[in-house]
Amino acid sequence: GGSALTDGGIDVPDADLGREGVPVTYVPFRNAHLIAIAVSWAEVIGAVNIYIGAVAADSSGYPDCRSEFYEAMNEAIRRGTKEGSGIVVKAPFVHLLKKDIVLMGKSMDVPFERSWSCYREGETACGVCDSCALRLRAFAEAGVPDPLPYETRPDYRRESPA
Q: Which of 41, 62, 87, 106 is at a distance of 20 to 30 A from 78, taking alpha carbons?
């Protein structure tokens, strides 16, 4: 429960990229749970760096995708693991725009056709959920063709100021 991504009784809404607040697709404290599992395993195997691909600037407004969240998590890790573990969470994309990540991926020949962003179930990406909208906008603004097929492919580019 608690999220359209975990509760079949809550519909994934169509994109509203101008919306204020936390969307119904937010999974409460999801990144903290994933990080906690990674930190636990890192401590067991002696790893020190945990990477997460969170993006704050033009994401869906999830509170656990902000740099302040990762700063707080790193403090909790420092206080909650064995002294000297040195484990840190790194979020190298948190301050980037998604279009810049697309451009970075293009420069590294990332197989974008193997990536998936859609929040809805289906063989083909819907093109209208927040995640599809953000992906489509990023590819369009980067000038890079998105290789995924979509049920519908709206233009989500930001309007240029007049």
A: 62
- Tell me the CA distances in angstroms from 72 to 15, 75, 91, 122, one per residue in order: 30, 5, 13, 36
The tens place of each residue's pLDDT in the chain, 162 residues long, gives 788 888 888 888 788 888 888 888 888 889 999 999 999 999 999 999 999 999 987 667 788 999 999 999 999 999 999 999 999 999 999 999 999 999 999 999 999 999 999 999 899 999 999 999 999 999 999 999 999 999 999 888 876 544
Q: How many domains are contained in the chain?
A: 2
Neighbours of 127 (CB within 10 A): 22
pTM, full prediction: 0.84
Residue 10's CATH number: 3.40.50.620
